[in-house]
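A reminder from the course coordinator: this example appears on the midterm review sheet, so study it carefully.

Given structure:
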């Protein structure tokens, strides 16, 4: 049964079908882009023709006023699921109404939708003749007023995603340019023409315009294109923009230039009420496909952008400088300016709007800076900043990791190291490509081998991850501390591996962080944050530059976010009522599950020393003494989550200290030697056909399957496989992927005989319990319980794939009841394992019976012995 959702325009509950999705898309266009009031819109409106009452229903009806009468109808809309052929059904019943416009719309699907078909009729001359028109007027606008705009008449852009998606679909499906990057480049050029027209062209009349009459003829489209090419020529001659389009021309012909102008002309991109988030969302439609390659560049989700800026809080009033050394499309910078605008309007209330706006523009042009090496993203960021400034922004196309002496002179002048008050960035990650160029590595302590967090003379072997070098470049950009003034502060998105990894190189990076920065906060982001583009698991590090290692104990704010607004496929993750229906706000917008505003608000209380409490368990503080006390200096919030630490404390508190009662030992104390908690090294696979001279080689998934699929085999005599054989009484723990799942090795695993030999992947940790210390069945039952799951998960570290180490498993505390209790639990585990083996064998016998019957063509009465 389809889910019921709330209609965007009317608030009515409707069934979420494929056609309903399309209707909701067009309602957003009507309300968000064309400004039609919700009070003028109805859905499933009944139409009466002659004596027939309510025989037809209009999908969307837009009225001239709040009177819902078909004699007051202005726009009639027929919606269809993507892929349906265009039909003229709507024209048959619109003639019974006063509607001037009839629209057919099949959605915004990039592959199947044809887009909106607009028809208009002149009620005074011929009410039965519908003429195709290129656009629908906005609210309060007549058809012949389209394209005759003055700059003061441009409406704010509050949602452009539908317009940009519609443009993208048509340009890609019908236009002469077929490469995504080429289309994006041309759209950016025309957006700059519009920005230049709004900001710099003389006079009040817009040059970026296209009237309905011009769009109908070849000569008219020539005139539209002439105006736009004139704007582009002026743009390329302006020193503030010339470096962006040197020697380039507009590639689209008159027809396609005119089309793009017709879609964008009514919006005021520089209007004070334009929603910059909406512009950013729209940009992603064209630029997003360029950010999925090996460069490791991905749009930072808006929720993360807002949280990072809110927690860093760059101040216009304090004249604080801002930089993003990997700015991409400029999302962090735009929101930083948006935050500064809000601060200015609150702080300078007695001043005029014009005076405040001048301060904001001056701040945008002189205090906000960005760097990116990718040409298209540089242009996007430059145009994005022009929307909120005046185009003379500090956005530069440079490689931030190169020595500054190799940057262009203007960039060197404005982007000095040791200068900036705040830095907010999401450097490239998700790529295996390391930086090996010696000239680049020499600039950085983190480009060298480290000992106790300090650089050694030799460079890092095998190069260094770009995200690690960006971490140090960010530190270099920040202003060093001065007397009574702390150093500059940063927010940087990092792969969580850097903050949690167990290998010595990442431990040394964390030691470097703690020597050179005061860590103010760490926020662990959900795994789906950058999905579907990359599965890299990330955290945001908030820190300020120091001149020496901080010796005073202080608290670090930490948070573990569960929701970031979307799922792993990139679809919105909705808040839902107990019955499963979505929750909505006052504007009939579905509420999104997003923990990050709660995190920001809690950090604000923490920073201002207000009562630091939160109903969310994943928000807490950790002292640096606790961080420095553990040898790996882990900085990920998940490791310190009190919900896990409290379990550890409760377990240790169970130790009575009385012989014959409960004692507590670590797993490392319950094995004969540390090497009895291990995983074998990876070996070269030597797969072969199943048979008596081969052994099954089970993956971490296979060992947990009742009847395993896709099992591979290796030769029994193959020497490397010998180290992967497991024995009865061992405990197996998956160490990567689905981390922390536990299996007891009985007589069989997944139907295979342990005695006959089973090899298991190196992605599984082996525990060989000492029976004199603990009953193996009891230890398995403890680790597979919810308590064990919490204790295992505490040691998980991650970049893309989650991992757990033998070292962590050895440190897990285990409560040990008297041996009789352990043995009773252990015997029950072993009995259950035997029953599972028997059940699997019985199913195998039944399957063989059916297979034999299918081959013989007869089904005799089954005679089955004991399983």
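Designed residues:
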């Amino acid at each position: 049964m389809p889910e019921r959702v709330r209609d965007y325009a009317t608030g009515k509950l409707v069934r979420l079908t494929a056609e309903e999705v399309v209707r909701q898309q067009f309602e957003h266009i009507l309300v968000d882009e064309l400004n039609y009031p919700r009070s003028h819109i109805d859905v499933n409106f009944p139409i009466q023709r002659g004596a027939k009452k309510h025989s037809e229903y209009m999908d969307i009806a837009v009225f001239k006023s709040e009177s819902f009468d078909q004699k007051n109808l202005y726009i009639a809309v027929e919606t269809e699921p993507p892929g349906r052929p265009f039909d003229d059904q709507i024209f048959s019943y619109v003639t019974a109404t006063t509607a001037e416009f009839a629209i057919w719309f099949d959605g915004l699907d990039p592959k199947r939708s044809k887009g909106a078909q607009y028809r208009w009729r002149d009620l005074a001359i011929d009410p039965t003749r519908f003429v195709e028109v290129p656009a629908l007027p906005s609210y309060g606008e007549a058809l012949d007023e389209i394209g005759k705009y003055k700059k003061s008449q441009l409406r704010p852009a509050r949602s452009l995603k539908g317009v940009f998606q519609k443009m993208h679909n048509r340009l890609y499906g019908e236009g002469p340019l077929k490469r995504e990057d080429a289309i994006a480049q041309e759209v950016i050029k025309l957006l700059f023409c519009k920005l230049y027209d709004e900001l710099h062209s003389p006079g009040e009349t817009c040059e970026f315009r296209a009237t309905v009459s011009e769009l109908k003829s070849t000569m008219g489209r020539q005139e539209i294109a002439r105006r736009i090419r004139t704007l582009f020529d002026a743009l390329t001659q302006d020193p503030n923009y010339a470096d962006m389009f040197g020697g380039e021309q507009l590639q689209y012909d008159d027809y396609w230039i005119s089309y793009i102008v017709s879609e964008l002309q009514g919006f005021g991109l520089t209007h004070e009420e334009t929603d910059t988030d909406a512009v950013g969302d729209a940009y992603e439609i064209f630029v997003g496909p360029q950010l999925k390659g090996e460069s490791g560049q991905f749009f930072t989700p808006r929720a993360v952008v807002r949280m990072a800026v809110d927690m860093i809080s760059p101040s216009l009033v304090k004249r604080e400088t801002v930089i993003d050394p990997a700015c991409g499309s400029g999302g962090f910078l735009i929101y930083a300016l948006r935050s500064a605008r809000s601060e200015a309007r609150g702080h300078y209330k007695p001043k005029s709007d014009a005076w405040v706006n001048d301060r904001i523009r001056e701040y945008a042009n002189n205090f906000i800076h960005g760097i990116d090496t990718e040409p298209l993203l540089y242009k996007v960021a430059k145009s994005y900043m022009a929307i909120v400034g005046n185009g003379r922004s500090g956005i530069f196309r440079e490689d931030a990791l190169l020595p500054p002496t190799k940057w262009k002179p203007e960039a060197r002048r404005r982007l000095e190291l040791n200068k900036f008050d705040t830095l907010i960035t999401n450097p490239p990650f998700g790529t295996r490509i390391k930086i090996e160029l010696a000239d680049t590595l020499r600039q950085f302590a983190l480009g060298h081998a480290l000992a106790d967090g300090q650089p050694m003379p030799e460079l890092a072997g095998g190069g260094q991850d770009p995200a690690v070098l960006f971490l140090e470049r960010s530190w270099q950009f920040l202003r060093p501390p001065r007397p009574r003034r702390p150093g500059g502060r940063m927010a940087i998105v990092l792969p969580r591996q850097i903050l949690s990894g167990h290998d010595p190189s990442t431990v040394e990076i964390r030691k470097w962080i703690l020597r050179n920065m005061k860590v103010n906060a760490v926020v662990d982001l959900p795994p789906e944050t950058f999905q579907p583009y990359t599965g890299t698991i990330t955290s945001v590090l908030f820190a300020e530059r120091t001149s020496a290692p901080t010796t005073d104990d202080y608290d670090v704010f930490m948070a573990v976010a569960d929701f970031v607004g979307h799922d792993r496929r990139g679809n919105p993750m909705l808040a839902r009522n107990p019955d499963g229906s979505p929750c909505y706000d006052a504007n009939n917008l579905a509420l999104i599950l997003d923990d990050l505003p709660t995190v920001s608000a809690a950090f604000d209380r923490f920073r201002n020393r207000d009562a630091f409490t939160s109903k969310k368990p994943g928000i807490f503080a950790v002292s640096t003494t606790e961080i420095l006390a553990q040898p790996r200096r882990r900085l990920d919030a998940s490791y310190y989550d009190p919900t896990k630490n409290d379990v550890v404390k409760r377990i240790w508190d169970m130790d009575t200290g009385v012989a014959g009662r409960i004692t507590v030992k670590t797993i490392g104390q319950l094995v004969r030697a540390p090497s009895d908690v291990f995983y074998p090294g990876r070996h070269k696979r030597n797969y072969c056909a199943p048979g008596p001279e081969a052994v099954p080689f089970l993956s971490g998934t296979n060992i947990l399957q009742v009847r395993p699929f896709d099992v591979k085999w290796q030769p029994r005599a193959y020497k490397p496989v010998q180290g992967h054989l497991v024995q009865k009484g061992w405990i197996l723990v998956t160490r990567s992927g689905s981390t922390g799942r536990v299996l007891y090795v009985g007589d069989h695993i997944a139907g295979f005989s342990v005695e006959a030999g089973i090899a298991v992947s190196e992605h599984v940790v082996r525990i060989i319990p000492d029976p004199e210390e603990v009953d193996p069945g009891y230890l398995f039952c403890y680790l597979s319980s919810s308590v064990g799951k919490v204790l295992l998960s505490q040691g998980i570290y991650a970049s893309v794939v989650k991992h757990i180490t033998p070292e962590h498993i050895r440190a897990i505390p285990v409560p040990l009841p008297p041996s009789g209790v352990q043995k009773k639990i252990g015997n029950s585990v072993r009995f259950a394992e035997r029953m599972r083996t028997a059940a699997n064998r019985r199913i195998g016998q039944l399957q063989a019976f059916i297979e034999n019957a299918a081959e013989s063509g007869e089904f005799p009465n089954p005679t089955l012995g004991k399983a």
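The CA atoms of residues 175 and 489 lie 47 Å apart. The two ends are 43 Å apart (CA to CA).
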